[in-house]
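Weekly sync, protein design subgroup
Attendees: M.S., D.O., the rotation student, P.L. (late)

Item 1: inverse folding check
M.S. brought a backbone from last month's batch and wanted to see whether the design step gives back something sensible before we order anything. D.O. pointed out we never logged the input encoding, so this time it goes straight into the notes. Structure tokens as presented (210 positions):
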């Protein structure tokens, strides 16, 4: 723990178990990355994958984040899952159940075989099983992309679970209170308009889960 990773608001929700942190990261595939450009903060969403003790952030060489990393900008990356709306008897105590991870650090742009391998890891992380069906990426395609490595050395996590925590004087209210669960559910695959006829969607899409 340091000043960057110490949770000051509602510290009882802090999570330090690395297995829980890894599970939160592994369930997601979209993160929000903050960096500094010309003295101002910028936040962008991008795809990512966890690879052991590092995050792999997907981008292109023309993206601002790649340029910022080359200039040495610090990064802050957030991943959040909203598991439900906490419906309290007052607006003040209404909340959400969530799991979140924030990572701080200075990124490194990968090159060579590490770069190409990291691209494959991101593809496989987003859709497990997909990589085996794809043609190999061309050198031009690889050169147009960037992958930023960010160590998981400075990480904080928070988790909220359970129902509303209403004030005692509100418990006799005739207003409903509880939890509205939320889930990310994949729909049925929709074929591309130019798909060759009679090609069925692969099982890893039909049965897709996070």
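Designed sequence read out in the meeting:
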């Amino acid at each position: 723990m340091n000043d960057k990773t110490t949770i000051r608001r509602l510290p009882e929700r802090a999570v330090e178990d690395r297995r829980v942190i890894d599970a939160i990261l592994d369930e997601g595939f979209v993160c929000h990355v903050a960096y500094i450009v010309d003295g101002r903060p910028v936040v962008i969403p991008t795809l990512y994958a966890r690879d052991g003790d590092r995050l792999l952030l997907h981008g292109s060489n023309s993206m601002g984040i790649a340029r910022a990393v080359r200039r040495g900008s610090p990064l802050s990356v957030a991943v959040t899952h909203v598991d439900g709306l906490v419906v309290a008897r007052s607006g003040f105590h209404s909340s959400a159940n969530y799991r979140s991870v924030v990572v701080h650090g200075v990124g490194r742009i990968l090159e060579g075989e590490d770069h190409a391998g990291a691209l494959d890891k991101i593809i496989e992380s987003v859709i497990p099983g997909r990589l085996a069906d794809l043609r190999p990426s061309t050198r031009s395609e690889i050169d147009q992309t960037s992958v930023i490595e960010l160590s998981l050395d400075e990480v904080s996590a928070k988790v909220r679970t359970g129902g509303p925590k209403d004030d005692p004087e509100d418990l006799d209210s005739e207003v409903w209170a509880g939890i509205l669960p939320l889930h990310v559910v994949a729909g049925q695959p929709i074929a591309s308009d130019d798909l060759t006829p009679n090609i069925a969607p692969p099982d890893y899409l039909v049965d897709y889960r996070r």
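Discussion: The domain at 11-206 is CATH 2.30.110.10 (Pnp Oxidase; Chain A). The helical segments are 18-27, 64-70, 112-126, 139-144, 203-206.
Action: P.L. to compare against the previous round before Friday.
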